[in-house]
Amino acid sequence: MNHTYLEIHKQPITWEKTLSHLQQKAKTNQFLNKKYDEIIFTGCGSSYNLSLTASYLWQAINQERTRGVPASEIFLFPEGVFLPNQQYLLFGISRSGETSETIKALQTSEKENTTIDTVGITCEDNSTLIHYSKYQVITSEAHEESVVMTQSFSTMLLSLLFLALKKKENLPRALFELPSLLNELLPTGERIVQSLANDFSFEKFIFLGSGPFYGIAWEGSLKLKEMSLTPTETFHFLEFRHGPKSIVDEKTLIIALTSEKAFDLEKVVLSEMISLGATILNLGKKPLNLDKSKIVEIVFENPSLNDFFTPILDVVFLQLLGYFRACNKGLNPDKPKNLTKVVKLN
């Protein structure tokens, strides 16, 4: 068994250890007690996708203005990110803590603007990112050997969700149920995803997600692309109807990350895509109750879950889709083409 598969399957244990660690260290996160004009989440690749979801969750939970920004934008075009005389909290996210653009983003921001507090989020102790961060959140339980981010992504996202909820002084039971829920869902969900990955009649893969699911949709798209060299596209649900739906036919698999909040409209979109020939993989709390011959579903039935928690569960099955598609194409997920574990600028 290779590293990628083992690390995908370790996530329930890793989440449980991380939540315990976060509870022990909760009082050390002094930035939770400060007021900021805006909170910026930044990273590269998967960590940028993570930033998009973390930004939504933090703003929705705490009613504070947030944004997810690619790390390179912060030092190349800072005038489009920061305003003078504003107090910022900047989260720099990097699995290795050595991603050059993220380090440079924190380094230049803190050097040139004294109104920015920085938080480094990484899976590695003593990494360079930590040395350029005023505050640190280290999820060493999620250390990975694989090139492609899997448990590191979900665990750092879980940590940011914990911090957002902790700031509001509200740690609901559902947060701590996530490890056991994933354990329950994995056997059946894995079989469903593996069956779809085996189906080579699909030539077009479209990921749809809105709100907190948009960054997760991008991450699922990236996992399939990185591991299996499959071209993919990503859209908000309703945006897909404005032109992009023209590509839909019987060779299209739409991976739908449905929400509670917008489910009725998302269902309308998916019904239209089925009429155009698409097959749907629905991940969400509710079944679609549409043409069963065109729908495969992984439904999270736990009543305590909501749109804050299901994105973290979604991403695991998207990782498995990329993994099994790669294996079925004769590719090694541990050695994805053209990729390295750490990306550094020359």
TrEMBL record:
SUPFAM superfamilies, per the entry: SIS domain
PROSITE patterns: SIS
Domain SIS: 28-175, 192-336
Keyword Repeat set for record: yes
Keywords: Repeat
Top-level taxonomic group: Bacteria
Matches recorded under InterPro entries: GlmS/AgaS_SIS, GlmS/FrlB_SIS, SIS_dom, SIS_dom_sf
A Pfam family assignment: SIS
Coiled-coil zones: none
Annotated protein name in UniProt: SIS domain-containing protein
Species of provenance: Thermatribacter velox
